Amino acid sequence: MLSNEITAIVGADKKRRRIGRGNGSGYGKTSGRGHKGLGQRAGSSPPMTFEGGQMPLFRRIPKRGFNNVNFARQYEIVNVSQLEQIFADGTSIGIEELAQAGLVNGLKSKVKVLGDGDLTKKLSVTAQKFSKSAEAKISGCGGSVKVVA
For the chain, what are the domain ranges? Predict the structure, then answer.
């Protein structure tokens, strides 16, 4: 086969549908959108849950049980290894210092200190919660742990 004998495969390229070009084209007048309603309007499409006006499935099924998402206490987590990296020996660490160091989002954050990593510095840490391993590591280095309500 020579390069000048190569031809396009028949049917591989479909012609573009020219809508709104007269009734003879088959896509004139309403341009294939039908009469009235949401489907006819430009730029709008029904939500994925729309079932043609029928009561949607998520409204037909009963809601049961308790969801704790609005009431659960959210704690920001700080590891002992992060305290080791950022703070100097003998420092007293509170939420203000953690926020300044960028370990928590702000002063209103509730903090839980976890015991991941090693600690060699004597630190005085104040937070809302401590894991048992974090408490043991901090007090094992001569530091102190203070729980704030």
Answer: 76-147
What is the dihedral sign for C-alpha 3, 4, 5, 6? positive
Q: How far apart are the first and last CA of the chain?
A: 84
Which tens digits make up the pLDDT trace of 111-139?
A: 999 999 999 999 999 999 999 999 999 99
Structure tokens at 33: 């959108």
Nearest of 99, 85, 116 to residue 126 by alpha carbon? 99
Architecture of domain 76-147: Ribosomal Protein L15; Chain: K; domain 2 (3.100)
Cα–Cα distance for residue pair 72/80, rounded to 1 Å: 24
pTM tops 0.85, yes or no: no
pLDDT tens digits for 51-81? 988 999 999 999 889 988 889 999 999 999 9
- Residue tagged 């079932």 (tokens): 51
Cβ-contact 101, 87 below 8 angstroms = yes
Residue 22, token pair as written in the block? 């007269």
